[in-house]
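Take a look at the protein record below with the fold in mind.
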Amino acid sequence: MALNPVPWAIDGGKITAADARRIAYSATSGETGITESNDFRVVASTPTGASVLVYAGAGIIRSNYASSSKSQSYCVSADTGTTVSVAPTAGSARTDYLIIKVTDPQYGGQAPADLVNGPYVTYALVPTITGLTYPFLALAKITQPANNGSITQAMITPLREMSNPRRKRDLNTLNLSATEVQTNTGAGGEQWPNAAAWTVEIPYWATQVRVRADWAQVKAPAGNAVGNLWVQMGANGVPGVASTFQVGYNTPGSTNDSRQTFTAADTLTIPTVMRGTVVYFNMRGKLTSASTNAARLVADNFSAMVLDLEFLERPTEDD
């Protein structure tokens, strides 16, 4: 087949709609999904009734028309929220899938009376999203019990995915000096060691953060010490402060000193108040018990601290 004689972009040249769709496809690597984390969120109407509210948003939908040429995607958007009616159930339960449906007359389907404004894209409720032969973006699954006429939030399962999710890694390391040696003594929990804290700028788009913290080659003196280790996101008392899962340590109780490495890891949801701000992250420890004071863990100048943060963009279900 000959090349299309007019590439994107030549002044005065005619660009086809298919060319524009190919640009959208390339920009999003052919993925279907929402653009920002809160786009097209689906919630129960207020007051509850036989409908749901779909938030405003934007998204990209890969074409799956059998007769279309390859590598094309449609851009869709809504500037305001929309209420979508959901039919009540009778004597049996029912599951509907709420989607955004694209109807392109170029590849079949009835052309709208208004060829300029359409609509070429609509919200639709379908019984399945398997085997659909037109482009669509799945928003939510709505499962109603028998004899129901009011949609509650518990009946709505989100299905949205990001079209081009962003991620950013922030790797922080620390080697202690001889003057920064610190023993884990905090029975109620303490920043440990004191120097293991960083102020980190959270991207405005980040909704989750994967956290890995390593206390590498800390000194485990003779005797036994038991405690917990974790990472805290946000300073004490700051709105949105959260902590990872606490891992436990239990030193060998040997008669000689040893070196031990411990790891804490978790995925935290980033609250709206922290997105796009500079946030204090710190590694923390708690001493539960020790056979002697001398048996407590020591972070010294032969230890290394690592705080590895990976910020992720995922669909959110909050405002």
